[in-house]
Design goal:
- The complex is a heterodimer of chains A (about 300) and B (about 240).
- Chain A is an all-alpha fold.
- Chain A has 11 helices and no strands.
- Chain A starts with a helix and ends in a 14-residue tail after the last helix.
- Chain B is built from 10 helices and 10 strands.
- Chain B has 2 domains: about 150 residues, P-loop containing nucleotide triphosphate hydrolases (Rossmann fold, 3-Layer(aba) Sandwich), CATH 3.40.50.300; about 70 residues, no CATH class.
- Chain B has a 6-stranded mixed beta sheet with strand order 6-7-8-3-9-10, sandwiched between helices. Chain B has a 4-stranded antiparallel beta sheet with strand order 2-1-4-5, covered by helices on one side.
- The chains are: A mainly alpha (about 300), B alpha/beta (about 240).
Chain lengths: ~300, ~240
């Protein structure tokens, strides 16, 4: 029983990370209809920035904030400098740009910090909180931090004029221009926020997966699965999808372990977790392409 | 009366296709002007050209300032409200959000609240549906919301594209009554594009007739109304 709860708890912690990256993907998707394949690598790069700051003696949380701000600026700059000129380009060109960005982030990080796997500290001391035997301090901390960040984002989009303007720009860019919203800047801002949320995920997960230039590869896949489960155009769905995928992958592995223990037959285990994510992607795309919370717009004409 | 909007030698292009050739007109400050014409004459394009939503060439002066070539959002910030055809609302946002986003560029936040009340005075039905998604409103309500949203911009000039489109006659009458009040009480100048020429000529003080991208006739509505060609082509008698 305790092991079961443990698996759920660690599933939630992983899910929080997937939720953040999935939300970053969806934020860009709703306003541009593009999936930013470089989202994970941008987050990885920001995580290295925070690591670098910490090795220079900056405290964890200060480095965290600086790295998140850095990612925000990086996101805005990438949109303005690289994607703005491609606004009318065919989808394929943009996909190629995203893949190029992915490769650049990856190799620049490798060139600066090498591909050696590094340990990454946790800001949550061993004895601080958590429930003994069920959820460790870092896992609980990750869930809390991401929930706070997601809550802040929700409040920003729901209650501030700028958040409203960003939603309007995403929903109908031409109409948004007609009420005076500077749509181009809203897109850049969206990129900045997406990059910042990704950075939060990267810095939070680095203690678990260790720091290396390829750390976000699998996570991006999970995030993609999460976004699809929730409905790719639905930010709230992406977050819920993240938690569902996080818990689901652990449950599948747990069930596999229990079966092996009982019968001695190995069907599925921890090694196949990523396969689970891919199966989720394919299943959702074939069975329910709109996702669990796919937006059903009620329209009366 | 001084002209609020002056358009001279206006050309517009969709890709390689030119759809306006040398369009010129003036909108008097405080008046209602209508653009008439058959389908494809360039009425909608003219409105879009004023807001720089198509590729244009020519002179567009608003309140004495040259605005040709400025970005759409900057032109709107000069208090030109454009109500596009097909009910320009944000369908996934609520009625309340649709109205608040229109006041996004305004700095006089206290006056915004008073304007909201005045807009609800014109359109009490919108107040009843304030938390509803705009996409779930009826056609007439969406058109009202589009006009209400334009009003929240506190416009000096309102560009209206086919406000009667697809609506029941009673609703259309109600909307046109409100447009007259907006013009008289709020001192908003109006440029109206309308298929329903009889209705438009009743409301407007001045009229311009467009044919294949050119102005072929203009004058006070009363004169245009009695022109034989206009009667035959647009009024149907």
């Amino acid at each position: 029983m305790e092991q079961f709860l443990q698996q759920i708890a660690s599933g939630l912690a992983n899910g929080a990370i997937y939720a953040c990256v999935a939300l970053a993907l969806v934020m860009i998707y709703v306003s541009t209809d593009h999936i930013n394949f470089a989202q994970g690598e941008m987050a990885m790069f920001s995580t290295y920035i925070s690591w670098q700051l910490m090795t220079w003696g900056v405290s964890f949380w200060f480095a965290f904030v600086l790295a998140v701000v850095f990612s925000f600026v990086l996101g805005v700059v990438i949109e303005r400098a690289i994607l703005r000129p491609l606004h009318n380009a065919p989808v394929l060109s943009i996909v190629v740009v995203f893949i190029g960005l992915l490769a650049i982030c990856n190799s620049v990080a490798g060139a600066i910090w090498s591909y050696l796997i590094k340990e990454f500290p946790s800001p949550f001391p061993k004895s601080s909180f958590g429930i003994a035997g069920v959820i460790g301090p870092h896992q609980l901390g990750v869930v809390i931090v991401t929930l706070v960040v997601l809550g802040l984002l929700f409040a920003f989009f729901r209650y501030t004029p700028l958040g409203l303007a960003m939603r309007a720009a995403a929903q109908n860019p031409q109409m948004a221009r007609l009420v005076g919203v500077r749509v181009d800047w809203m897109l850049a801002l969206g990129w900045g926020l997406a990059a910042a949320v990704g950075a939060v995920a990267g810095i939070m997960v680095a203690h678990i997966v260790y720091l290396d230039p390829n750390m976000m590869g699998g996570i991006l896949l999970y995030a993609f699965a999460s976004a699809l489960v929730g409905g790719i155009g639905n930010p709230g769905g992406a977050v819920v999808g993240g938690f569902i995928v996080g818990v689901l992958e652990n449950m599948v592995a747990y069930a596999g372990n229990q079966i092996e223990k009982a019968t001695g037959i190995y069907i599925i285990g921890n090694g196949e977790k990523l396969t689970v994510a891919l199966i989720i992607v394919i299943t959702v795309l074939t069975v329910k392409p709109a996702g669990l919370f796919g937006r059903v717009v009620v329209k009366r004409v | 009366m001084a002209a609020l909007l002056e358009v001279k030698g206006l050309k517009a292009f969709y890709g390689q296709t030119q759809s306006l050739y040398d369009v010129g007109f003036e909108i008097p400050d405080g008046g209602i002007t209508t653009l008439l014409g058959a389908n494809g004459a360039g009425k909608t394009t003219t409105l879009r050209a004023i807001c720089n939503m198509v590729r244009t060439d020519g002179t567009i002066r608003f309140a004495g300032k040259d605005i040709a070539g400025q970005a759409t959002e900057e032109i709107v910030r000069l208090r030109i409200a454009h109500v596009p055809e097909g009910r320009g609302t944000f369908t996934t946002l609520t009625v309340d959000e649709n109205l608040r986003i229109a006041a996004y560029t305004r700095r006089d936040k206290a006056a915004v609240h008073a304007d909201l009340e005045r807009v609800f005075g014109y359109f009490p039905r919108l107040k009843e549906r304030i938390q509803q998604q705009a996409g779930t409103l009826s056609g007439g309500e969406q058109q009202m919301l589009a006009i209400a949203r334009a009003l929240m911009l506190k416009p000096r000039l309102m560009l209206l594209d086919e406000p009667s489109f697809g609506l029941a006659p009673l609703i259309v009458q109600e909307i046109f009554r409100i447009l007259r009040r907006i013009n008289e009480d709020d001192k908003v100048s109006i440029l109206l594009v309308e298929q329903n020429a009889a209705l438009a000529l009743d409301l407007a003080t001045h009229a311009y007739v467009l044919e294949t991208g050119r102005v072929v006739m203009s004058g006070p509505s009363s004169v245009v109304k009695n022109d034989e060609n206009v009667r035959k082509s647009y009024l149907g008698y």
